[in-house]
């Protein structure tokens, strides 16, 4: 049975305060619906200063989801580690881990947009060192014991719910990310299907004598929308999918390796690529994939259309556990 994900980044290129408020509230309600129908995880992410109002505060959103659900996980994929104060992030994740009884998954990456670092007043060239400090600080902080941080002794409380610590993965597509994960005994979450990076990570683990695993994306994991009439939906709403694809393309340099990468400049080209797919419920059931990722509000998709897609998705993939109430 495939692992099921509902993704939210709350993009709205025509945003007003009222439209964004409605979109945020709808996303939390959608997460509750997904929770009731057996979906495994909500996925969210972090970007700053985007003109289309891309979600900048994934942990705040995660808290709202946890307050409305009882079993679904929330995966923050990814938090831009060097932009955060390590002690405050340790506290925030600990509180969310307690609130959710261990349902938070954090993927820590370093990002790929220099303008986000400039906006935050963080030096781009220090991102690797800051990421090392962040990960080491989180691991020390979650023990609940005093430790040294920037020349002073500190302690972070409360301790998280999860032992030995909340689920934390190192995201990225570089050997530096793999070395970081291996040295600390943390799982690696590559940003694309990179078997050579997974092999390198395991060699590094062997050298450091650490445990860990790699959560490798499939070679192709399309972002999905579900419709009874894909032709009509492409015609009406394909522009929303293209908006997100073009936004990603504008941010990604040639050396960035990502599972979500599109060269499309038109809806027709986007449809041909199959990075984003609109499928019928029957086609969804026939997909042979380890994971299915629904993106119901992609690119500012109208909320009512997002609901239609989510209901069709859940009806097609509903698990036995959901049918018997968990």
Describe the structure.
This protein has 326 residues and is an alpha/beta fold. The chain has 12 helices and 11 strands. The strands form 2 sheets. It has a 9-stranded parallel sheet with strand order 8-7-4-3-2-1-11-9-10. The chain has a two-stranded antiparallel sheet with strand order 5-6. Helix 2 packs parallel to helix 3. The mean pLDDT is 94.
Helix content: 40-55%
Counted by DSSP, the helix tally is 12
- Sheet-strand content, in percent, reads 15-25%
Radius of gyration: 20 Å
Shape: globular
Q: What's the main sheet like?
A: 9 strands, parallel
pLDDT below 50 for ≥5 consecutive residues: which ranges?
none
Distance between the termini: 16 Å
User: How many beta-strand segments?
Assistant: 11
The succession of helices and strands, N to C, reads EHEHEHEHHEEEHEHEHHEHEHH
* Global structural class: alpha/beta
Strand order of the largest sheet: 8-7-4-3-2-1-11-9-10
Nearest-integer average pLDDT: 94
Short description:
The chain has helices spanning 17-36, 58-68, 86-100, 114-120, 127-141, 175-184, 195-208, 230-251, 267-273, 281-286, 303-317, 320-323; strands at residues 3-7, 41-44, 73-80, 104-109, 147-149, 152-154, 167-172, 188-190, 223-226, 276-279, 291-294.
Keywords:
326 residues, alpha/beta, nine-stranded parallel beta sheet, 11 strands, 15% strand
């Amino acid at each position: 049975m495939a692992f099921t994900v509902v993704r939210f980044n709350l993009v709205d290129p025509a945003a007003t305060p009222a439209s964004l408020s409605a979109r945020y509230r709808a996303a939390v309600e959608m997460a509750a619906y997904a929770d009731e129908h057996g979906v495994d995880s909500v996925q969210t992410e972090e970007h700053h200063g985007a003109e289309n109002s891309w979600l900048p505060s994934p942990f705040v959103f995660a808290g709202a989801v946890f307050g409305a659900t009882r079993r679904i996980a929330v995966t923050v994929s990814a938090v831009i580690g060097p932009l955060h104060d390590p002690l405050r992030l340790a506290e925030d994740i600990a509180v969310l881990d307690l609130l959710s009884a261990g349902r938070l998954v954090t993927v820590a990456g370093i990002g790929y947009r220099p303008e986000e670092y400039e906006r935050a007043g963080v030096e781009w060239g220090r991102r690797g060192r800051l990421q090392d400090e962040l990960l080491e600080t989180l691991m020390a902080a979650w023990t609940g014991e005093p430790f040294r941080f920037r020349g002073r002794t500190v302690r972070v409380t409360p301790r998280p719910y999860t032992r030995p610590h909340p689920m934390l993965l190192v995201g990225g597509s570089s050997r530096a990310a793999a070395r970081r994960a291996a040295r600390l005994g943390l799982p690696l979450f590559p940003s694309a299907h990179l078997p050579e990076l997974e092999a390198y990570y395991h060699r590094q683990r062997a050298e450091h004598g650490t445990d860990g695993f790699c959560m490798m994306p499939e070679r192709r994991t399309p972002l999905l929308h579900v419709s009874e009439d894909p032709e009509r939906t492409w015609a009406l709403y394909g522009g929303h999918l293209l908006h997100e694809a073009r936004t990603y393309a504008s941010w990604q340099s040639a050396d960035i390796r990502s599972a979500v990468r599109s060269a499309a400049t038109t809806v027709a080209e986007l449809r041909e690529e199959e990075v984003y797919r609109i499928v019928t419920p029957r086609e969804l059931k026939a997909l042979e994939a380890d994971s299915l990722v629904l993106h119901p509000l992609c690119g500012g998709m109208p909320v009512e259309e997002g609901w239609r897609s989510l209901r069709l998705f859940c009806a097609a993939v509903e698990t036995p556990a959901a049918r018997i109430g968990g």
